[in-house]
């Protein structure tokens, strides 16, 4: 099976290119860099952040969801950006669970995806068509990821 799924003029290989760039941008820490302690007048208590490492599957999903939305995202107000990002991460986690669980419910995935895209502010009468087209493009990419990650059972319902 070919790794290329045509979507209009944008092939799926753009996701693979983004993954390669991400992997290339992660450089090992330099030995010249060292952490120096700075004396402060009062100790600052930082709340520990529970950072869970993302699986490669989730990173693939997040890249697929973010593809093509960069300009729209940067134009959003800060509060809307935070909400959109948080819901996008929740959606990616849900999609990962569906994919790793062995069943990928197409209807459920599509409805979740369109609900997330509806968080974007409407920009005129053609927004509905943009939303439907963007959801279709992202579903095609997610289906390609599902097939590539092991050929899980794809279900039309649920």
Q: List the uncertain runs.
A: 1-12
Global shape? globular
What is the number of E strands? 4
Order of helices and strands: EEHHHHEHHE
> Beta-strand percentage?
5-15%
Quick check: average pLDDT?
75
Helix content: 55-70%
Description:
Helix 2 (56-66) runs antiparallel to helix 6 (127-148) and helix 5 (106-117) crosses helix 6 (127-148). With 158 residues, this protein is mainly α. The chain has helices spanning 13-25, 56-66, 70-75, 78-100, 106-117, 127-148, and strands at residues 6-7, 10-11, 103-105, 153-155. A hairpin with a 2-residue loop joins strand 1 and strand 2. It has a domain at 53-158. The radius of gyration is 19 Å and the shape is globular.
Record the SSE blueprint.
Elements: E1 6-7, E2 10-11, H1 13-25, H2 56-66, H3 70-75, H4 78-100, E3 103-105, H5 106-117, H6 127-148, E4 153-155
Parallel strand pairs: 3-4
Antiparallel strand pairs: 1-2
Helix pairs in contact: 2-4, 2-6, 4-5, 5-6
Features:
158 residues; 55% helix; 6% strand; mainly alpha; globular; disordered N terminus; 6 helices; two-stranded antiparallel ribbon
Give a quick summary of the entry.
By secondary structure, the chain is mainly alpha-helical. It has helices at residues 13-25, 56-66, 70-75, 78-100, 106-117, 127-148; strands at residues 6-7, 10-11, 103-105, 153-155.
């Amino acid at each position: 099976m070919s790794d290329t799924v045509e979507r209009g003029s944008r092939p799926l290989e753009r996701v693979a290119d983004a993954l390669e760039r991400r992997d290339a941008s992660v450089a090992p820490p330099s030995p010249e860099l060292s952490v120096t302690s700075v004396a402060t007048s009062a100790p600052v208590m930082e709340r520990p952040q529970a950072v869970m490492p993302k699986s490669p599957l989730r990173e693939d999903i997040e890249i697929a969801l973010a593809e093509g939305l960069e300009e729209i995202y940067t134009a959003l107000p800060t509060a809307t950006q935070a909400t959109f990002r948080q819901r996008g991460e929740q959606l990616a986690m849900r999609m990962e669970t569906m994919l790793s669980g062995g069943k990928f419910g197409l209807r459920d995935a599509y409805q979740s995806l369109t609900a997330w895209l509806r968080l974007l502010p409407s920009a005129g009468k053609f927004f509905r068509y943009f939303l439907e087209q963007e959801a279709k493009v992202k579903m095609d990419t997610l289906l390609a990821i599902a097939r590539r990650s092991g050929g899980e059972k794809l279900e039309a319902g649920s």
